[in-house]
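Hi, here's the filled form for the chain we discussed.

Project: internal
Contact: R.S.
Residues: 148
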Amino acid sequence: MRIYLPLMAQDRPALQEGRRLVDLDAGRVAWAVTAEASADRPGQDEEDLEYEAMQDAVHVAFTGAEDAARALVIAADVSDGVLAAATEDGGAFGIRLRERRSAKIASFHVTEQDRWAAEKDDTDPALLWFDAGEGQDALAFRDSAPTA
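And the returned structure, exactly as it came back:
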């Protein structure tokens, strides 16, 4: 299943070293389009649901971030059997890992705007897409100061 993970400090080495896998601790909260989330939204396109799940992860990545910080979300794949619902923490798309697991990185998504600009805007933050092999570039862009 494709999951969306807000960048955490323990994820940074995987990006800095260009790894294809990211190690995830048991209990880690992420966002995904589960069967339950799809069933609650009959007729809604799968890509739209994935967009909503990713935006939930973006908003969490902005929580507690500095005003000038961009958000980075890792899209990764894990087997469905290691996931449990975490809707109490993560809304309709919230999931939690039942056990420690490595997830295969699919891509990275970084907001164009920093947290301050995104909060002032009334639309979802626009995301730049980085390939699975571009973790260093995604991290460098995330860490760079946005231009005015």
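Let me know if anything looks off before we file it.
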